[in-house]
Write a structure and sequence with these properties.
1450 residues; alpha/beta; Rossmann fold; 5 domains; repeat; Pleiotropic drug resistance protein 3-like isoform X1; nucleotide-binding
């Protein structure tokens, strides 16, 4: 490599020398001939000079060897460090272009994205055609393609209850009567055939769930192995197993998975480096060779660009700068991607990054899945326009699925594939699709987008309105019928003909298909992954600094608890030295826990990149392991340096360094173990549970809690497979072999030997190095396991599918009954839109107006703005907004992003938690009072927040029970819920679980309708809706808007903010409120039929361009009123509105509606909430009960964890309960109690965090809606835990009590159960309290570890109460674990008078407990009271904090 680089730099140097020689000879020849050229103008001379210089420079490049010629190019000369056009050129090595030079070149090539990108691609195309080089092309064919999924059928509702989950885990249980139908196959794609041609952009349209994603994944060769695929897919006539499809084509996912700690540029550079340059290098070599032969001098800029993107393995590449530019990401190129925890790029930018990350590579076939979700129409148009240019000018093969393409975007596509129910209804030229449907009898209305029409005409509910023969009877045409009609059509027959002609393989370009699995060599792959891992460690430095500071803090407490001045060199104090060594091991063992969360967080991105063959698993695993070595060294140095001298270990340098080496090895094996477990369990909850269980096992078998000699003989092997055992052996041998422990005791043994023997650790000194070797062996083993798990396990989320028996039978019935549909009874319909039944709502309500006058809203100026020179203390977001919303009128609230739409809605609905509001707001003519207003107002938020573990119908019942008048009886409430389900078209999915967005449950569109239904069921008079159609496809948006229209028709007042509506959606509104940047009003009034009023108003303003025929009025209106349009025209639309007749009419209306109607009265309710306190609590408890029963990941996992741990305790401490001969026997028993209390508690506390954090988010929304008080929610949350903890305690007692062999009296069993119950409650409520005190789950998780360390140290096991220094004794009393151990040990043994040997003297068990531990049997009642007080205090604090701390900022 070094030689190569040397050759390159020598080559470039030789060019420079030749050029300077040529320059000298040129200058002398110019001097000789100067006199004969005086007449020519100086400008022309300069140009000629530069052109001559080009030719000379190029001639020198041409004489270079091939390798150097491909890396040398002509670049603009610099002036003050910046390249300047027109100053002449210089020869550069394109692998060494700096960031500024790359930026300058891209700026020069692409100033205006739309035109210049087209020009650049044309110039590249012209260059290749001039020398006759053909670009590789790919034709993708699929023949009789079928995809099937295996799914499991469950009886009743397909809900993941604890019982259903347990049945699926235990294969013996399912074989019960009536469950014979267990597994079934469901068809996703049903027998489709077709061709996707190069040089054309194809649009894939279809409703959600029709199989688009599976189709795209199967074509790109990355479909999950769990799905069964039949039929053939071929690229240029070659089947997928004959080449590497992942390196030939690229699948762009609809999910944005990126590493949040990397910037946009870093993400793309890494992707470009891993994907390589494909055939670009060979093509460039061929072009260069042919140009040299033909004597053609290329355009220097194009030559530089083409050479720069053809060099592989570069850390920074010009292709990244180019893609950033054309996708509009250059403005955020150096911004972190971010996530909910880290501020980063916007959702729309993330969506574009997902596309950019893949198209930065060399792949010639692109399969793109919903790449414009969440983007505004102009950005979507720009992206598709770039793709069109890419296809037409580089002969790429592009298939794009979109949800809601606007007419102008739709027109950019060449071909169209229309899918429904897993079948292809139409495929062929886009412009012939309408003709096909017209031949079937359906016509697209004039003011209707073609894409919207195509999606609705194949839907059973929407088809009838497009029937074009009113004189003929209409009958529903199924998708099967459309498929057969398509096969008979010209397009269908032409496609069949093309499919029957096999592809001529000889025409396939040699570089078209990739045969290499990876683009880089093994060493390059490792370097790339190593560089990224190092970058991520730098970005996560806060975490490592925090961990180190935490370790320093814990070390400070530890060394002041085990202070050297309080510990002697004798048998008695040797125990405390042992305790401090064991505690060091525990701390370094649990210090690795964050590694598990970090690994899990990156798994999704790893599996995505591994699937796309960016790099193999080992290239990811090796850097992740090696780069953690310095961290382990740092942690062990910090701990040993701080504690070694202060605790008072043997004062010898050799022993200090040996302890350091051993702790380093322990930490290294610990983080390797967590990484390994995270790679196997793959989710936060599962890997947390696995991690805590692993700690439990390695600590139980570690030889301190129970010595090896006391373990059952058949379990002694466990001691040798626990990493902690080797830590224990190494540390104790290192310390107790020191000269100061050599003092001889009676029985001819030294203090050190006696101590080691009592713990079963009497090993020779050489075992220290054996222990270090064993720990490093464990590290190696865990890392090999980590690599193998990454290589062979499936990615997370690819879990089994479950379906209810009813739904499965319904699918089959539908498939079997297509014939009966075909011959069904025709029915006469009108050609107009289908009207849903307009039934009156079951419950009466009061129609109300809301009037607002001169509303202003300010916030404190953000610090960032002040730093940039903004001087005012307040920033105004709404300015003099006046208007009225009336019953039965559907109002749209529109404006550009940041105009204040959501702000105005939040102000009117009383949802703002910060800022200053001025102006008048009246409801029904009376001043608005927030407490009463919340009872008659509904607010549908843009983010659909619902409890994930309850069904659609249960969500509505919960809302109805808490918000409807208590006088209404249950029967009418249920009728009303059913009425709403029907109105919002949710009755078909009423028994489906809501689920977690993007993971499980309802689709985006169903979730959106549920949000509306939950508010509507409260029977409000006024409803605010924030972006009800964002992220929906055309049909879903139509369903939502139809539901909204149904509600308005009942006489309610509805206001919707809306972003980029289609013509249909926009014209469904009656009135419009339009805001401009700064929250100023520029129109408030009627829309008019076909938007005539709004068009007339804006067209009457001088300079505003007229709207084009059939153009979307919403898009036109936003374009003509944009900030740039205002600047161009030199007008202020807000001032024009103030002088208009519309404003005067609006003002008059506001004045009229501001006075209450005669005979009306102000809103009044006797209480703040609809239900009394008991009713609120009952409803919350009902919902929590259902959620808990359906949360196996939380409740089943912790119950199974308790079962497994209890069984392990029972086996390991078998019959130790009554075996009382010396102090070690009692220490063993205390060890069993200590580990049970600590570890079952920690597992409960850790697993409750995420659950309560999710429940809190839902609680914020429901409390804002006035459903219940926070006390009702928190009490229900506290109470619902009790039965599950009881189950844990009962199973723990039933398993461990007889196995360990405690004393069999009812009194002692009661105490054992009572202490365990109180202890687990305390841990659970502590977890809840931590969530209520912190803004999110991650902060709560970090905070909990501080509690665990003190609960561990001050439990009274490692150092008993009498020995704790007085300055720390308060912490002992503040720990629930110390009281739990006191209660559990004293109740068992505090009344036992058997005599035992204690450190060489005889004592009764009861006396030893008093003297050594400070536990008094006669004070048990105090322990009982304190144990009850802990959960009570923690639960009360949780209830208070969740009510008073609001981390949701609005």
């Amino acid at each position: 490599m070094a030689e190569l680089i040397g050759t390159e730099s020598d080559g470039i140097e030789s060019i420079r020398k030749e050029l300077s020689e040529l320059g000298r000879s040129l200058r002398s020849s110019f001097r000789l001939q100067g006199s004969s050229h005086r007449s020519i103008s100086s400008v022309s001379t300069t140009k000629d000079d530069i052109n001559d210089e080009y030719d000379l420079q190029w001639a020198v490049i041409e004489r270079l060897p091939t390798f150097e010629r491909l890396r040398s190019s002509l670049f603009d000369k610099e002036n003050d460090g910046r390249a300047v056009d027109g100053k002449g050129k210089k020869v550069v090595d394109i692998t060494k272009l700096g960031a500024l030079e790359r930026h300058f070149l891209v700026e020069k090539l692409i100033r205006h994205i739309a035109n210049d990108n087209l020009n650049l691609l044309r110039r590249i195309r012209d260059r290749t055609e001039k020398v006759g080089v053909k670009l590789p092309t790919i034709e993708v064919r699929y023949l009789n393609l079928c995809i099937q999924a295996d799914c499991e059928i469950v009886q009743g509702k397909p809900l993941p209850t604890l019982w259903n989950s347990l049945k699926s885990m235990l294969p013996g249980i399912p074989g019960m009567p009536g469950s014979e139908l267990r597994k079934a196959k469901i068809s996703i794609i049903k027998d489709v055939s077709g061709i996707i041609k190069p040089g054309r952009v194809t649009l894939l349209l279809g409703p959600p769930g029709c199989g688009k994603t599976s189709f795209l994944k199967s074509l790109s060769g990355i479909l999950s192995k769990s799905l069964e695929v039949t039929g053939t897919i071929s690229y240029n006539g070659q089947k997928l197993d004959e080449f590497i499809p992942q390196k030939t084509s690229a699948y762009i996912s609809q999910y944005d998975q990126h590493i949040p700690e990397m910037t946009v540029r870093e993400t793309m550079d890494f992707s470009a480096r891993c994907q390589g340059v494909g055939s670009r290098e060979d093509i460039m070599m061929e072009i260069s060779r042919r140009e040299k032969e033909a004597g053609i001098v290329p355009d220097p800029d194009i030559d530089t660009y083409m050479k720069a993107i053809a060099v592989k393995g570069l850390k920074r590449t010009l292709q990244t700068d180019y893609i950033l530019r054309i996708l509009g990401l250059d403005i955020c190129a150096d911004t972190l991607v971010g996530d909910p925890m880290r501020r980063g790029i916007s959702g729309g930018q993330k969506k574009r990054l997902t596309t950019a990350e893949m198209i930065v590579g060399p792949n010639k076939a692109l399969f793109m899945d919903e790449i414009t979700n969440g983007l505004d129409s102009s950005t979507a148009f720009q992206i598709v326009s770039c793709l069109q240019q890419l296809a037409h000018l580089t002969d790429a093969t592009i298939l794009v699925s979109l949800l809601q393409p606007t007419p102008e975007t739709f027109d950019l596509f060449d071909d169209l594939i229309l899918m429904a129910e897993g079948k292809i209804v139409y495929q062929g030229p886009r412009d012939q699709a309408l003709k096909f449907f017209e031949d079937c009898g359906f016509r697209c209305p004039e003011r209707k987008g073609v894409a919207d029409f195509l999606q609705e005409v194949i839907s059973r509910k929407d088809q009838a309105q497009y029937w074009q023969h009113p004189e003929l009877l209409y009958s529903y045409i199924s998708n099967d019928m459309f498929c057969s009609k398509f096969k008979e059509s010209n397009s269908g027959m032409k496609l069949d003909q093309e499919l029957s002609d096999t592809f001529d393989r000889s025409k396939s370009h040699k570089n078209a298909l990739s045969l290499n699995v990876y683009s880089l060599s093994r060493w390059e792959l490792l370097r790339a992954c190593m560089a990224r891992e190092l970058l991520l460690m730098r970005r996560n430095s806060f975490l490592y600094v925090f961990k180190t500071v935490q370790l320093i803090f814990i070390a400070s407490i530890t060394m002041t608890v085990f202070l050297r001045t309080r510990m002697g060199i004798d048998v008695f104090h040797a125990n405390y030295y042992m305790g401090s060594l064991f505690y060091a091991l525990v701390i370094l063992l649990v210090d690795g826990i964050p590694e598990s969360a970090l690994t899990v967080a990156r798994l999704a991105v790893f599996y995505k990149q591994k699937e796309l063959y960016f790099y193999p698993a080992w290239a990811y695993a090796i850097p992740a392991s090696i780069l953690k070595l310095p961290l382990s060294l740092l942690e062990s140095v910090v701990w040993t340096s701080l504690t070694y001298y202060v605790i008072g270990y043997s004062p010898e340098a050799g022993r200090f360094f040996r302890q350091l080496i051993l702790l380093f090895s322990v930490h290294l094996s610990s983080i390797s173990m967590y990484r390994f477990l995270a790679s196997i369990f793959q989710t936060v909850v599962a890997s947390t549970t696995a991690g805590s269980f692993a700690i439990l096992i390695v600590m139980l078998f570690g030889g301190f809690i129970i010595p090896k000699s006391s373990m059952p003989a058949w379990l002694k092997w466990g001691f040798w497979i626990s990493p902690i055992s080797y830590g224990e052996i190494g540390l104790s041998v290192n310390e107790f072999d020191a000269p100061r422990w050599k003092k001889i005791l009676s029985g001819n043994t030294t203090i050190g030997q006696a101590t080691l023997a009592s713990r079963g650790l009497n090993f020779d000194g050489y075992l220290f190095w054996v222990s270090v070797g064993a720990l490093l062996g464990f590290t190696l083993l865990f890392n090999i396991g980590f690599t193998l798990a990454l290589s062979f396990l499936k990615p997370p989320g690819s879990s089994r599918a479950i379906i209810s028996r009813e739904k499965y039978l319904h699918i089959h019935k539908t498939e079997d009954s297509h014939d009966s549909i075909k011959h069904g009874e025709p029915k006469k319909v009108s050609a107009g839109p289908v009207q849903s039944r307009n039934g009156r709502m079951v419950l009466p309500f009061t129609p109300l107006t809301i009037v607002f006058k001169d509303v202003q809203y300010y916030i404190d100026t953000p610090v960032e703005m002040r730093e940039r020179g903004f001087e005012q203390k307040r920033l105004q977001l709404l300015s003099d907004v006046t208007g009225a919303f009336r019953p039965g009128v559907l109002t749209a609230l529109m404006g550009v992003s940041g105009a204040g739409k959501t702000t105005l809605m939040d102000v009117l609905s009383g949802r703002k938690t910060t800022g200053y509001i001025e102006g008048e707001i009246k409801v029904g003519g009376y001043p608005k009072i927030q407490e009463t207003f919340a009872r008659i107002c509904g607010y549908c938020e843009q983010t659909d927040i619902h409890s994930p573990q309850i069904t659609v119908k249960e969500s509505l019942i919960f809302s109805a029970w808490l918000r409807l008048d208590p006088q209404i009886d249950s029967k009418r409430k249920i009728e009303f819920v059913n009425e709403v389900l029907e109105t919002i078209e949710l009755d078909g999915i009423k028994d489906s679980l809501v689920g977690i967005p993007g993971v499980s449950g309802l689709s985006t569109e169903q979730r959106k309708r549920l949000t509306i239904a939950v508010e509507l069921v409260a029977n409000p008079s006024i409803i605010f809706m924030d972006e009800p159609t964002t992220g929906l496809d055309a049909r879903a948006a139509a369903i939502v808007m139809r539901a909204v229209k149904n509600i308005v028709d009942t006489g309610r007042t509805i206001v919707c903010t809306i972003h980029q509506p289609s013509i249909d959606i926009f014209e469904a509104f009656d009135e419009l409120v339009l805001l401009k940047t700064g929250g100023r009003l520029i129109y408030s009034g009627p829309l008019g039929h076909n938007s005539t009023k709004i068009i007339e108003y804006f067209e009457s303003i001088p300079g505003v361009p007229k709207i084009k025929s059939n153009y979307n009025p919403a898009t036109w209106m936003l374009e003509v009123t944009s900030t740039s349009a205002e600047a161009e025209l030199g007008i202020d639309f807000a001032l024009i509105y103030r002088d208009s007749a519309v404003y005067k009419t609006n003002k008059e209306l506001v004045k009229q509606l501001s006075t209450p109607p005669i005979g009306s009265s102000d809103l009044h309710f006797s209480s703040q909430f609809s239900q009394n306190w008991w009713g609120q609590f009952k409803s919350c408890l009902w919902k929590q009960y259902l959620s808990y029963w359906r949360s196996p990941s939380y409740n089943l996992m912790r119950t199974l964890h308790t079962f497994a741990a209890s069984f392990l305790f029972g086996v390991l401490f078998w019959n130790q309960g009554k075996k009382l001969n010396n102090q070690q026997n009692l220490f063993n028993i205390l060890g069993a109690m200590y580990i049970a209390v600590i570890f079952l508690g920690i597992n409960n506390c850790s697993s409750v965090l995420q659950y309560v954090a999710m429940a809190r988010t839902v609680m914020y929304r429901e409390r804002f809606a006035g459903m219940y008080s926070s006390w009702a929610f928190s009490l229900a949350q506290v109470v619902v835990e009790i039965p599950y903890i009881l189950v844990q305690v009962i199973s723990f007692v039933i398993i461990t009590y007889p196995m360990i062999g405690y004393f069999g009296s009812a009194y002692k069993i009661f105490w054992y159960s009572y202490v365990m119950f109180c202890s687990l409650l305390s841990f659970n409520y502590l977890g809840m309290l931590l969530v209520s005190l912190t803004p999110n789950f991650m902060v709560a998780a970090i905070l909990q570890s501080a509690f665990y360390t003190s609960f561990n140290l001050f439990a009274g096991f490692l150092i008993p109460k009498p020995k704790i220094p007085k300055w720390w004794i308060w912490l002992y009393y503040a720990c629930p674990t110390s009281w739990a151990l006191n209660g559990i040990l004293t109740s068992q043994y505090g009344d036992i008078d058997k005599e035992i040997m204690v450190f060489g003297e005889t004592k009764t068990v009861a006396a030893f407990l008093k003297d050594y531990f400070g536990f008094h049997h006669d004070q048990l009642y105090v322990v009982a009271i304190v144990l009850t007080a802990f959960p009570f205090v923690l639960a009360t604090l949780f209830a208070y904090c969740i009510g008073h701390f609001n981390f949701q900022r609005r």
